[in-house]
Amino acid sequence: MSKICVFAGSNVGNSPEYEQTATRLGELMAAKGIELVYGGSKIGLMGRVADAVLANGGRVTGVMPRGLFLGEMMHTGLTEFHEVGNMHERKALMSELSDGYIALPGGLGTFEELFEVASWAQLGIHKKPVGILNVKGFYQPIADMLTQAVSAGFMRDTNLGLMLFEENPSALLDKMAAYSPPEQANKWTELSK
């Protein structure tokens, strides 16, 4: 795995552990020679992970929609920067450039990006690992919701293996490096009768 797309909050959150984990992830990615692909911002957890990769000699590629964000949010110290037309193009290019995905804590944009790549994995559009850094139990409600979706018959239990939950960035990177996609049953239960 040479490039990982990281989805992360454009804010830092209210606990220092969020920033510390973003920084640690960036340090580890640089140490392992893994390039960061992300949304191109200099602020929030997005900026912290990018700064850490760069400060430790790593490569960072940013992808940002033209005119959507204020100029002061764009990180000007990146290795490579792509300006695209809209959010759909942004996500498509970030996915094309990446060998896997990691979600740090964030808000609606982070959730949307995470669920989109997880849905793509479920449908077989990609076979890349989808990692979730569950800092301070941030993503536990989502883990519980996924289990509930299986219990309620809306999702196959094999889909639970499409997302790798870890609290520690080093352990998550190790899991992602060893990832083998779970064999997926037919998603549509009514079609398998």
Automatic annotation (TrEMBL):
Give the enzyme's EC designation.
3.2.2.n1
GO CC aspect terms: cytosol
Keyword Hydrolase listed? The answer is yes
Top-level EC class as recorded in UniProt: hydrolase
Q: Is Lipid biosynthesis one of the keywords UniProt gives this record? A: no
Give GO terms for biological process.
Answer: cytokinin biosynthetic process
Q: Which Gene3D superfamilies match?
A: 3.40.50.450
What the entry lists under InterPro entries is as follows:
LOG, LOG_fam
What's the name of the protein?
Cytokinin riboside 5'-monophosphate phosphoribohydrolase
Q: Which UniProt keywords apply?
A: Cytokinin biosynthesis, Hydrolase
Q: What GO molecular function annotation could you give as one example from this UniProt entry? A: hydrolase activity, hydrolyzing N-glycosyl compounds
| Cleaved signal peptide residues | none
Organism whose genome encodes this protein: Paenibacillus catalpae
Please state which protein family the record places this protein in: Belongs to the LOG family.
Query: Where does the source fall among the domains of life?
Result: Bacteria
